[in-house]
Amino acid sequence: MTQNLHTLTPQTAPDLGTLFEPMRIRGLTLRNRIVVSPMATYSAVDGYATDWHVQHIGKLAAGGAGLVFIEQSSVNTQGRITHGCLGIWDDDHIAGLKRLADIVRSFGAASAIQIAHSGRKGASQRPWEGGGPLGDADIAARGEGPWDIAAPSAIAFDQGCQTPAEMTIEQIEAVVEDYRLAFERALKAGFDIAELHCAHGYLMHSFLSPLGNQRTDEYGGDREGRMRLPLRIAAMMRDMWPEDRPCFVRISSVDGVDIGWGLDDSVAFAAALKAIGIDVVDCSSGGFKLPAQNSLVARTPGFQLPFSERIRKETGVLTMGVGLIRTGEQAAAALAEGRCDLVAIGRELLWNPNWPAQVAVEMGVPDAWKLWPDQYNWWLRRRQVQQGR
Ligand SMILES: Cc1cc2nc3c(=O)[nH]c(=O)nc-3n(C[C@H](O)[C@H](O)[C@H](O)COP(=O)(O)O)c2cc1C
């Protein structure tokens, strides 16, 4: 979309449907249906939020979205992807996270936090350091060595990556307790929404998918067995989270093309999540290293919306759509066509954190300027009047 505030006037504005209409989920009202997707920035220190997070979340919160996600936060040190992952494994992390939730609220948006464990994708370099497994060079350069990673089965993520040991039942129980404490801390930090991360090849996804899970005990085997641990943790989250606040689960709707976890599996999982009271299924995809012929899901605008649409229609659960949605028209169409109930935006918001507020003004949404902080809107409105547009 154009970056010019004035190229669209109310007269030429397309119909934005429900995009900027409030939405109520349990006791929470979102001011619109645009969501800042969870985006890890690998800039925490020992799991603590830093000034980086304050300005990053501040910018996004001031941009007009209805809901702002704090990036995936690790339930224990083993569950970090990198040394820079945000943490929620210590009570001392709560203050920094609370500050982020407070900032989001101060701009009129609702706040969510994604609770995660990296599984066999842990002990990695930050993306801009290569994204590969940590090794001697990382110790020499930054004093950042690898740690032992956890997974349902002893399968390495990729060639050259650490092969994890199969988690014992005792280790599974310990991780469940780490999730419990993490949800408790998220609540103390004041978040409106908790999301369990079950996507992108991390621990919960590894339990779900036959590509990651070859266990023969009650947490493996058929789909029911593979869903057992993620469902148990999702149910625990729902039980602990206040009745009037929503719970989300992010899934990889498919692993790839004709391989592993598929859309039928996601429909079954979403139905089970709905039955335990999960409000929104957040429909992403992928995360495992696949043979080229199986990973050819075309990356076109809205490429994951067909997954969200089928899950929504077949289970009746609310869904969040995400993936290469870059214009107001695309976001509005996704809602109008019944493909999802909320639209999450990732990279377009890194490009332009004011995207929601800008789209609202450009498209003539009533009261659009209220999405801009007074400190900015006073000047921008004045310029609009002075320029005759
Ligand atoms: C910098 C960055 C970090 C991300 N971190 C996370 C994360 O912490 N958790 C998650 O579920 N997805 C993460 N994602 C995926 C996004 O939430 C989103 O699903 C993806 O970028 C597709 O949406 P987009 O095309 O609008 O960017 C990340 C994406 C980016 C670009």
Quick gist of this model?
The chain is of the alpha/beta class and about 400 residues long. The chain is about 35% helix and about 15% strand. It has helices at about 50-60, 95-105, 135-140, 170-190, 205-210, 225-240, 265-275, 305-315, 330-335, 345-350, 355-360, 375-385, and strands spanning about 25, 30, 35, 65-75, 85, 110-115, 150, 165, 195-200, 245-250, 280-285, 320, 340-345.
Describe the protein's architecture and organization:
- The structure is a single chain.
- The protein has 389 residues and is of the alpha/beta class.
- The protein has one domain: Aldolase class I (TIM Barrel).
- Helices cover 34% and strands 14% of the residues.
- It has helices at 51-61, 94-106, 136-142, 169-188, 203-208, 223-240, 263-275, 305-315, 328-336, 347-351, 355-362, 374-386, and strands at residues 23-25, 28-30, 34-36, 67-74, 86-87, 110-116, 150-151, 165-166, 193-198, 247-252, 280-284, 318-322, 342-345.
- The strands form three sheets. It has an eight-stranded parallel barrel, surrounded by seven helices.
- Strand 3 (34-36), helix 1 (51-61) and strand 4 (67-74) form a beta-alpha-beta unit.
- Helix 1 (51-61) packs parallel to helix 2 (94-106), helix 6 (223-240) runs parallel beside helix 7 (263-275) and helix 7 crosses helix 8 (305-315).
- The longest helix is centred in the middle third of the chain and has 20 residues, at 169-188.
- The radius of gyration is 21 Å and the shape is globular.
- The model is unreliable at 1-13 (pLDDT under 50).
- The chain binds flavin mononucleotide.
- Flavin mononucleotide is lined by residues 37-40, 71-72, 114, 197, 199-200, 250, 284, 322-325, 345-348.
